[in-house]
Amino acid sequence: MSRRITLRWAAALVAAGSIGMVAASPTQAGPAAGTDRATTAVAPASDPGSYYAAAEGKTGAALKSALHTIISSQSTVSYDQVWTALKNTDQDPANSANVIELYTGKSIAKTRNGGNTGDWNREHVWAKSHGDFGTSTGPGTDLHHLRPEDVTVNSIRGNKDFDNGGAAVSGATGNYTDADSFEPRNAVKGDVARMILYMAVRYDGGDGYADLEPNDRVGNGSLPAIGRLSVLKQWSLQDPPDTFEQRRNEVIFSTYQHNRNPFIDHPEWVESIW
Ligand SMILES: [Ca+2]
Ligand SMILES: [Ca+2]
């Protein structure tokens, strides 16, 4: 079976909800056990076939540039279509009528999407004011950094940068916040880091969009930047990709955008680029 056919087969199974990933890659270690809500003894990330061929052997800025070209070949969805997509990408593995909220970790009915207290809405992990890209088709609708979140907790996170510390967030166990930063629960720290770094590689000032980049500060305001990079790198290491995160990458690739988050497939590329 060719690698291309293997990938198509895998994507079909993922779309059907049968599996989260397939075909071990010899270059990656499996995630550490016991660090994540949904961590199970899984094989490494799905085999993306020849998807990353143009990046092979590259490091640092050359790797980032090659990945930018690869992942910029994509389809887009509208902000309205994001609702439907999230009901698929973030489906509760234990209850197909529900999605899992990113920060609270709670399972909530897909039909509770909306804007009222107790509903879930569309959290931009790369806060949309950082680069002021809004909800037009583009970075504001990119599924790789959009997640279901409780309306109130989404508002508490607001457009804060990410960092460790602060007071416990009411209604979202394990999350902390202070005046200028937000710390997500341990099980999604790596997810947050890989979403931010995906955005930095995907959006480099072309296509009429801002050049998004991480930095090591908080309080970035409307700058096209999010911090803190040193903390995000640590979070990526301590919370490696699990089956939930890998499955959503597959679903976005196979069903919606036809591009991938390289840092879910190759977490070691975080250290190579940054
Ligand atoms: Ca995780
Ligand atoms: Ca960039």
UniProtKB/TrEMBL annotation:
Domain of life: Bacteria
Keyword Flavoprotein: no
Entry annotated with the keyword Signal: yes
Pfam families, per the entry: Endonuclease_1
Protein name: Endonuclease
GO molecular function, one term: endonuclease activity
Signal peptide residues on this chain, from the entry's feature table: 1-29
Keywords: Endonuclease, Hydrolase, Nuclease, Signal
